[in-house]
Every structure is written in structure tokens, then in C-alpha cells.
Amino acid sequence: MINEITVIFFAASVSVAFLAIVTLYVVVNYYKTLKRERDLEEEVRKMRASGSEEARKIILNAQIQATEVIKNAQLKAQELINASDIFSKEYKQKFQLVIERELSKILSGASQAISSQASVEMANLHSMFEKNLSLLTAQAQSQVEEYKKAMMGKINNAVFAIVNQVAKKVLKESLDRKQHEKLIIKALEEAKRQNVL
Amino acid sequence: MYSNILDTVKTSSDREELLSEINQIKTAFYESAKNLEDVLKSKVRSFFAEAIRQQIQEGADLEKYFSGLVKALNGLDEVKLEVALELTYEEIEAISNWINKSTGGKTLISFDVKPNILGGATVSFKGKYFDGSLLKILDKTLEESRDALIKQIYLQK
């Protein structure tokens, strides 16, 4: 019993001692890490301060160079403007005259060419139109004549049919018996003349 | 012998009628003398009845007489005429005379009435044909003068 208690007590003491060592180790490491972090933060702060200074210098240089470039550009522009003014004053009138003369020549030539071409085209069109018109007129006249002929033919046939009918009716009604007999004898005489009888 | 009978036959209808009468007489003749007289009185035209009586009085062989008459009737030529109207006996006689005179023999006429031919006649004889109708003459005349007619009609307008 005593031995068991001793063993338990001893085991408990060993465990506590072990936990104390582990705890101590963790604490020591924590403080080391904390210190390292602080060092790193200090280093970063220093580097930032140094970077800002460098950037400021670069921007300043750039501004100086930009100012120079603008100044140069302004000078060049002024030179160009001056040259332009000189050109305008000295040659503007001549240049305009030349341009106008050349333009006039080109336009005149073009106008003549266009006019000539247009005349030819107009003549061709006129000729073609006249030809087509003549052809169409001839065709139309021919069709009209054909139609007229056909219609006249129909009218004449109708008129002739009426005349035929009227003649038959008149003949039928106007013949007396004696005339009928004479006509029959006449038919027989003709039949005999033609060797039918 | 038969000329006086045949003279009365002008048309095909006349012939048919006469043949019918001959048949009736022949039938009666074989039955009895009384029947023959009855038929001669009631069924036969007078001119033919008289001719038969004359033959009986002369003692002729009636059978032979009828046989010869039928043969003579069937041997007659026939001309077919188309005419525009029904003809009278006188008209038929005149036409028949003309035909007989013209052909130099006895010829029967067969009439067909066709009003549309207007007048004149078409003639058919022994397979030959002639159109002497007024219709044909009119059509031909109108056709020949068609242009002149139409021109005249337009001028009158």
C-alpha cells in the first residue's frame, strides 16, 4: 500500500516536473519568437523609410526632366508657329494662285472630258432610244393592224352570216309554186347537162 | 300491154301502192270471184279495177298478167330528188314527163322533202349525184360576191 502510494507520488512528481520543463521551454521559445518579430518590424520600418526617400528623389527628377521637355517643346512649337507665319505671309497668295490655276485647269479638263463623254453617251442613248422607239412603234402598229384585221374579219363574217340568213329567208318566202317547179326543172336540166341523168 | 297502167305510176310511192293493190287482188282472186269483185270495188283504185275487169273480160291469164306487171314495175329506173316542198300531182306529172322525155324511158321519181334547200333539187341517179338546190346556188353566189357585198354594206353606212 505504502509502495503504491510512493509509486503514484513519484509518478506524479515526475509528471509535474516534466510539464514544468515543457512549459518553460514553450515560454522561452515564445519570448524568442516575439523578439524576432519585433526585430523584423523594426527592419521593415527602416526599409520603408529608406524606400520613400528614394521614390521622392525619383519623382523629383522626373518632374525636373518633364519641365525641361515641356520647355523644349514650347520652344519648338514657337519656332514652327513662327515659320508658319512667315510661310503664310510670303507664299500664301502665290500658293493660292497656283492652287487655283491648277485646280481650274484640272476642273476645266475634267469638265471638257465629262462634257465630251456625256455628249457621246447622250448621242448613243438618243440613237438607242430612237431605234427602240421605232421598233416598238412598228411592233405596236403591226399588232394593232393584226388585231384590226382579225376584228374586221369577225365583223365581216357576222355581217355575211346575217346577209346569208336574210337572203335565205327572203328567197324562201318570195318563191311561189311555179317558180319552185321551174327551179326543179332547171336543176334536172343541169343534171342532164352534167350527165347525171 | 301495161303502158296504160305504168303511165299512172310516176313515183316510188305510186309503185308501192300499185304493188299493194296487186297483192290484194291476187289474194282475192284465189279465194273466190265474189271476193275479187269486192276487192276491186273497195280496195283498188278505179282505173286499175277497170283495167283488171277488162283483162277478165278478154279472158287473159290474170296470174301471168300480174306477174308481168310486177316485173315491169320492179324494172323501172328510179331517180331520187330532194325538193324544198311537197309537190302537187300536177307538179309531179310535169317533172315526171320531163324526166321520161329526157331519159327516153319510164323512170320513177322518189321524192324527199328538205325545206332547208330552199328550192330547186338535188338529183341522184344510178350512183351519180348533182346538187341543183337553191341553197347551193345562193351560197356560191354570196361567197363569190362576199367582198363586194361587205364593201357595199359599209358604203351604205
What does this 3D model show about the protein?
Chain A is mainly alpha-helical. Chain A has one domain (2-193). Chain A is built from two helices and no strands. Chain A has helices spanning 2-174, 177-193. Chain A is elongated and about 190 Å long. The model of chain A has no long low-confidence stretch (mean pLDDT 83). With 157 residues, chain B is of the alpha+beta class. In chain B, strand 1 (77-83), helix 6 and strand 2 (107-113) form a beta-alpha-beta unit. The longest helix of chain B is centred in the first third of the chain and has 20 residues, at 12-31. Chain B has eight helices and four strands; from the N terminus they run αααααβαβββαα. Chain B folds into two domains: 3-74, no CATH class; 77-144, no CATH class. Chain B has helices at residues 3-6, 12-31, 33-42, 46-57, 62-74, 89-103, 134-144, 146-156; strands at 77-83, 107-113, 120-125, 128-133. In chain B, strands 2-1-3-4 form a four-stranded mixed β-sheet. The mean pLDDT of chain B is 90. The A-B interface holds A 156, 159-160, 163-164, 167-168, 171-172, 175, 177, 179-181, 183-188, 190-192, 194-197 and B 79, 81, 83-85, 87-88, 91, 94-95, 98-99, 102-103, 115, 118-123, 125, 128-130, 132-135, 138-139, 142, 146, 149-150, 153.
